[in-house]
Design goal:
With 312 residues, the chain is an alpha+beta fold. 20% of the residues lie in helices and 37% in strands. It is globular and about 80 Å long. It starts with a helix and ends in a 6-residue tail after the last strand.
């Protein structure tokens, strides 16, 4: 009898728990709905930003998973370079659209407004002035592949694009330098890479061919006070940490100015080269990629010539 009573008691508690969960859902459901901003809230917040947005401004979403909503509302304001910025060089202001109390910055904003749960905040940036964006200027570069000591030009070509994707790496743009049609990965051009943290990076695809370099040369570059380089390998292969390092050598005129050696696991690496003492205001800048084993070296980099600040 006691055992039967315990079974009945357990069954009763199960039903009590089910009833409690149902009651909680009834109470919590309207609260959850109330915490979700309406379409009208997003539209009002977007209109507020749109009326004040400048050509050097950038948009960020908080939390990060709200980014598609921000892109849907305001994506037409943002260039591809600003949609996947490498750093804040050349950025005048940061606009943040946030929900659920999330934020991307700890410092107080200059401006803050709330639109039914969508919070808009703005920060002015004292960021470096951007003199030259190598990614944006890639079409005007000279690209060549070294084969047995012989330099072979890679022509700028309109070719069939590739959407890329999971297991296939970044997208191949329609216009790009093709160094060897037999090796479809051996091209140079602007794309967007997913780094080790799955963040989009606007960059120059320059897959190494081996120990002989792939060379990209930019002429008449205003070098400014520093040359900032970022580089990485596509997330799909870098996360395995199983392949050879890639060396990116940076030459200014006839001098080796710096090297970035990227190992799988480094993530989005950074190299800063001081060019303040460079005698010429303009120079020839060359980027060379090599690897002891080029297999799966889905390498991409960005670079910019900068001055100290937008004020200077």
């Amino acid at each position: 009898m006691a055992e039967a009573g315990r079974k009945l008691s357990l069954a009763a508690w199960v039903w009590v728990l089910i009833a409690a969960l149902a009651a909680f859902e009834l109470v919590a459901h309207p609260l959850i709905l109330a915490a979700i901003p309406s379409d009208e809230s997003w539209e009002e917040a977007s209109a507020f930003v749109r009326a004040r947005f400048g050509p050097s401004d950038v948009l960020v979403a908080a939390p990060a998973w709200a980014d598609p909503i921000v892109r849907y509302e305001l994506g037409d304001l943002t260039s591809l370079r600003m949609a996947a910025p490498v750093n804040l060089a050349g950025v005048g202001r940061v606009w943040e659209l946030a929900i659920r109390g999330a934020t991307t910055r700890d410092d107080p904003p200059l401006l803050e407004e709330d639109f039914g749960g969508v919070r808009v905040r703005m920060w002015p940036m004292d960021s470096p002035a951007l003199l030259y964006d190598f990614v944006e200027e890639i079409e005007h570069a000279d690209v060549e592949l070294v084969v047995d000591g012989e330099r072979r030009a890679c022509p700028w070509t309109q070719a069939r694009p590739d959407r890329g994707g999971l297991g296939r790496g970044p997208m191949m743009p329609t216009e790009r330098f093709i160094c060897d049609p037999r090796r479809p990965w051996l091209w140079v051009g602007a794309t967007v890479l997913a780094d080790l943290d799955l963040r989009p990076r606007r960059c120059i695809w320059q897959h190494p061919a081996g120990t002989a370099p792939v060379r990209v040369t930019f002429s008449d570059v205003p070098v400014g006070e520093r040359l900032v380089v970022h580089a990485g390998v596509d997330y799909g292969v870098e996360r395995r940490r199983a392949h050879a390092p890639v060396t990116l050598a940076v030459w200014i005129d006839a001098e080796l100015a710096g090297e970035l050696v990227h190992h799988d696991g480094d993530g989005w690496s950074r190299l800063e080269i001081d060019t303040s003492g460079h005698g010429a205001q303009r120079a020839t800048v060359r980027f060379e990629t090599t690897a002891p084993d080029p297999a799966a070296r889905l390498f991409c980099y960005s670079a910019s010539a900068q001055t100290a600040s937008n004020d200077g």
